[in-house]
Design brief:
The complex is a heterodimer of chains A (166) and B (134).
Chain A (H helix, E strand, L loop, with lengths): L12 H16 L7 H8 L3 H12 L3 H19 L4 H7 L5 H12 L3 H9 L10 H28 L8
Helix pairs in contact in A: 1-2, 2-3, 4-7, 7-8
Chain B lengths: L6 E5 L3 H8 L6 E8 L2 E8 L2 E9 L8 H12 L6 E5 L2 H10 L3 E9 L2 E7 L5 E6 L2
Parallel strand pairs in B: 1-4, 5-8
Antiparallel strand pairs in B: 2-3, 3-4, 6-7, 7-8
Classes of the chains: A mainly alpha (166), B alpha/beta (134).
């Protein structure tokens, strides 16, 4: 019984269920700010206990989990919409394009504009939308995406460094 | 030649609580509830789909050892079990009805690609997608 988790002591499923509730809340509104204080309140545990338990349960610290979910949403918006990248950054919870771009590159190893260009050039990715519609909808937009990408790259390069304190 | 699915089981943390949820809140009824010592074979069915039973089982001996049962309980509570899909005529109406019963929704109804969907969890942590029949 004590070795149920490969040497780690067993975790109370009731606690895990409450941690899951906090993760669900982040999933449902990843654009919102989720300080540990707020998450701990959802789970009904202390802040210190929350951060450690969450990492043990889900393999990543809560903040990194949130960033990953935001990037995932940003990727979907880049792929499925023609919203400007600044708007996508804003909608997914960043207030700085520089931070968004840097985090995006850290997680996906490419810039938001590059991902958009690549995904929108690959109609196979849009399996939920009829192909004929896609060809019509995305062919002209590809040109916009190229210029958008150049504009965004320039913006990112010239944006002042706004370092986050780790 | 006929081949259909008769029972698919879920792991739940507590079978009484699961009955309260699936019968009391989702509108299923108990199909079989048979006890043999500590073991309880429990299935529910929905009046709209009488040929299918949803099993509500706890990870327990003699089917799994104690350590495995603990791991399974943890996996369920972490929402790590496979996705489940419930199909209804009207997601918004079902959502309103289920909210009144105190069902824990993890995603409010959203319209995507011309259809509305929502998500909820059972008390154990099993995640359900609620979608509309098209």
């Amino acid at each position: 019984m004590a070795n149920a988790n490969g040497g780690r002591p067993p975790t109370d499923p009731e606690l895990l269920r409450r941690l899951l509730r906090a993760r669900d809340r982040m999933d449902a509104a990843s654009e919102e700010a989720w300080p540990v204080r707020r998450l701990a309140r959802v789970s009904g545990v202390s802040q210190a206990h929350f951060a450690r338990s969450f990492r043990e349960a889900f393999g990543v610290p809560p903040h990194r989990y949130l960033l990953t979910r935001r990037i995932e949403r940003a990727k979907a918006l880049l792929r499925d919409t023609d919203l400007p990248i600044t708007e996508i950054a804003y909608q997914t919870g960043w207030n700085s394009l520089g931070t968004f771009g840097r985090t995006f590159r850290d997680i996906t190893a490419e810039a938001p504009g590059q991902l958009r260009l690549r995904e929108q050039a690959a109609p196979g990715e849009f399996d939920r939308v009829p192909a004929c519609y896609l060809i019509a909808a995305h062919r002209p937009d590809l040109k916009i995406a190229v210029s958008e990408k150049r504009r965004q790259e320039t913006e990112v390069k010239t944006a002042p460094e706004d370092r986050e304190v780790p | 030649m006929k081949q259909v699915i008769g029972v698919v089981g879920l792991y739940v943390r507590d079978q009484d609580e699961a009955v309260e949820f699936y019968v009391g809140k989702l509108g299923f009824s108990v199909h079989t509830d048979a006890k043999n010592g500590d073991y309880r074979w429990l299935t529910v069915q929905h009046p709209d789909q009488p040929s299918f039973q949803l099993g509500l089982f706890t990870p327990q001996a003699p089917l799994v050892d104690a350590a495995t049962a603990q791991s399974l309980r943890e996996a369920v509570a972490k929402g790590a079990m496979p996705p489940l899909v419930l199909v209804v005529d009207d997601v918004r109406a079902a959502h309103a009805r289920m909210m009144d019963c105190g069902v824990e929704f993890t995603q409010e109804p959203v319209e995507r690609y011309g259809a509305v969907d929502a998500s909820f969890r059972d008390p154990s942590g099993n995640g359900w997608k609620l979608i509309e029949a098209r």
